């Protein structure tokens, strides 16, 4: 049997150590994700780390360091597709980016373990865990800080609900009024409400807006004939 002829105890123990390290370190990362009930939890992170370690270890044994480097490149791109599966978009909100990034970190840990860089794999695990735990209070503190609308990067929308017969005139008037206030319109959408009214939604190009100026512009538009309702809103989520 070829297996008996080619089996080497040292190589097998080396592979076993790489897989064991990837398993333990992937468990540490995955346990934190599982505790927070994320989409990719304990088992997913462990499998990603062990799988990456196995591919890199196999390439190292078959083609040496050059083979390992080539496989690592494929692992990096392959994990991108896996991470895309845990990212969900709900309206203007995007969920799962942190979980996808954690999977990328688990794959990097596995690659280090597969390349027999155990110290580096351990250090990387600590950094991934620190990013998901120690930085959480800082994130919460930033999120609780009041929003400075004049300096924050955000997307602003001006909405006009108008009568059908006044749509064309008010659409042009909306653009002219906003541009006169130095807020050029990047996009203009019209939504038919089906009750003899339509909504004009203007997306502003500027990311530094004075709320008082927008209030004044919207108040002027509200007084125009044919305008049922005028308002503006801001979105800070990508």
Summarize the structure in words.
This protein has 238 residues and is of the alpha+beta class. The protein folds into two domains: 2-144, no CATH class; 155-235, Alpha-Beta Plaits (2-Layer Sandwich). The protein is built from eight helices and six strands. It has helices spanning 2-6, 9-35, 42-84, 97-114, 118-133, 136-144, 167-180, 211-222; strands spanning 88-90, 93-95, 155-163, 185-192, 197-204, 227-235. Helix 2 (9-35) runs antiparallel to helix 4 (97-114).
Set down the secondary structure blueprint.
Blueprint: H1 2-6, H2 9-35, H3 42-84, E1 88-90, E2 93-95, H4 97-114, H5 118-133, H6 136-144, E3 155-163, H7 167-180, E4 185-192, E5 197-204, H8 211-222, E6 227-235
Antiparallel strand pairs: 1-2, 3-5, 3-6, 4-5
Helix pairs in contact: 2-3, 2-4, 2-5, 3-4, 4-5
The number of strands is 6
User: How many domains is the backbone divided into?
Assistant: 2
User: Mind summarizing the main beta sheet?
Assistant: 4 strands, antiparallel
Low-confidence stretches: none
CA radius of gyration is 27 Å
Span between N and C termini? 58 Å
Judged by helices, strands and strand pairing, the structural class is: alpha+beta
Question: What is the number of helical segments per DSSP (H or I, 4+ residues)?
Answer: 8
Provide the succession of SSEs. Answer: HHHEEHHHEHEEHE
How much helical structure, as a percent, in the residues?
A: 55-70%
What percent strand? Answer: 15-25%
Side-by-side strand order of the widest sheet: 4-5-3-6
Q: Average pLDDT, to the nearest integer?
A: 84
The global form is: elongated
């Amino acid at each position: 049997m070829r297996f008996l002829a080619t089996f080497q105890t040292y190589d097998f123990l080396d592979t076993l150590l790489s897989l064991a390290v990837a398993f333990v370190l992937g468990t540490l990362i995955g346990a934190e994700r599982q505790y927070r009930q994320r989409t990719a939890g304990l088992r997913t992170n462990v499998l990603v780390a062990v799988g990456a370690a196995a591919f890199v270890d196999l390439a190292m044994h078959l083609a040496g360091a050059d083979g390992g480097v080539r496989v690592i490149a494929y692992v990096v791109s392959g994990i991108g597709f896996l991470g895309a599966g845990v990212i969900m978009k709900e309206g203007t909100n995007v969920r799962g980016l942190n979980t996808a990034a954690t999977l990328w970190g688990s794959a990097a840990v596995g690659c280090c373990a597969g390349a027999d860089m155990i110290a580096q794999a351990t250090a990387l695990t600590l950094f991934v865990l620190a990013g998901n735990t120690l930085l959480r209070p800082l994130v919460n503190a930033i999120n609780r800080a009041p929003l400075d609308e004049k300096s924050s990067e955000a997307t602003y929308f001006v909405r006009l609900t108008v009568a059908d017969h006044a749509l064309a005139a008010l659409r042009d008037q909306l653009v002219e009024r906003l541009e006169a206030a130095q807020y050029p319109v990047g996009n203009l959408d019209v939504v038919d409400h089906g009750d003899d009214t339509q909504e004009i939604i203007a997306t502003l190009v500027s990311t530094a807006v004075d709320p008082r100026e927008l209030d004044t512009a919207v108040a002027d538009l509200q007084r125009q004939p044919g305008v049922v309702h005028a308002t503006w809103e801001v979105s800070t989520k990508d």
